[in-house]
Design the sequence.
């Protein structure tokens, strides 16, 4: 039976000590509600609880988005009722994007594109203002990426050893390279003239919880 420890075993010690970005977000107050008049603070631990683990992709996504949001929300509060987001279809990057922007494929406000690397396209729906943020090429070691791809070609003990080694290498990079750096050192944001294509998902629905956000 799986144990249920009552502590933050899933939160790496290094991250506890690091100065991680935090995010203030604004939402509505109910399923058909108005805007909330107060913001909420989201931290890295919240992202881990949603995504499931503290991986390199989660930290890289967090760093990248922390550089991008101020370009769209100069007042420092991310409006999760007003955003579209696109990223590579990585489990990790897509989750961070959805959690922090409020974009979801089922409402036509999240999409994916398999261009490699860590990047996000972010758009404020109300204004059309769009930015792209990307990670500095070469910042994430090529050999770790190769190690990820290599797993598909291994089996048995070789696979077991490779999974362990890959996890160790990823964690070492996060602890010794990413976390000691500042997000703006390796993640860069630029404005973009962009028309958002329709999201090709046939079950798209209406997001009712933002329809009445501006009702007096
Ligand atoms: Zn992940």
Sequence:
């Amino acid at each position: 039976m799986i144990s249920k420890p009552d502590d933050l075993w899933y939160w790496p010690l290094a991250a506890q000590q690091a100065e991680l970005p935090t995010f203030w977000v604004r939402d509505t107050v109910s399923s058909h509600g108005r805007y909330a008049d107060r913001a909420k603070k989201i931290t890295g631990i919240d992202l881990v609880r949603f995504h499931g683990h503290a991986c390199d992709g989660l930290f890289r996504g967090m760093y990248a988005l922390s550089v991008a949001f101020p370009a769209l929300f100069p007042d420092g509060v991310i409006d999760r009722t007003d955003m579209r987001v696109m990223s590579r279809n990585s489990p990790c990057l897509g989750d961070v994007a959805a959690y922090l922007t409020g974009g979801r494929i089922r409402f036509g406000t999240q999409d994916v594109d398999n261009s490699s690397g860590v990047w996000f396209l972010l758009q404020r729906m109300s204004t059309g203002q769009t930015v792209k943020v990307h990670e500095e090429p070469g910042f994430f070691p090529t050999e770790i990426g190769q190690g990820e791809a290599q797993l598909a070609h291994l089996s048995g003990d070789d696979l077991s050893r490779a999974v362990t080694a890959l996890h160790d290498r990823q964690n070492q990079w996060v602890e010794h390279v990413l976390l000691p750096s500042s997000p703006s050192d390796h993640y860069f944001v630029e404005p973009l003239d962009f028309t958002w294509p329709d999201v090709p998902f046939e079950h798209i629905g209406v997001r009712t919880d933002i329809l009445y956000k501006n009702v007096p």
